[in-house]
Amino acid sequence: MIAVAERMPMLATAATPDHLPPLAERYAFGEFVVDTRRRTLSRAGAPVTLTPIEFNMLIALLRRQGGVVPREVLEREIWSYPTLPASRVVDRHIARLRRKIEPNADHPLHVVTVPRVGYRFHAT
Asked: Are the beta carbons of 46 and 37 closer than 8 angstroms?
């Protein structure tokens, strides 16, 4: 288990492409506030527990608000290596994240699926 944790880079320290905005200290959407320095998420002031992978995925999506984030980009940023083509690992983690931040995970408002491509984040 430690070997996996060592391979998983922290998104805040990972190299970022020039076209991405710098990592903000805080992001807000709906009732949520993300503190990237403390690596915390709160909803209406109450803490929301995220795994490191869920937190990193949320940050990757927030940094590209409104744009489509392909699964391959999430794989590269979160795990630093591609998963198998038929792998649903990204989808499973997105589903878990949705259960924590969406009013209705079956009809998401924030993390929207772009079929056969990836995901788009909406702050509304």
From this structure: no
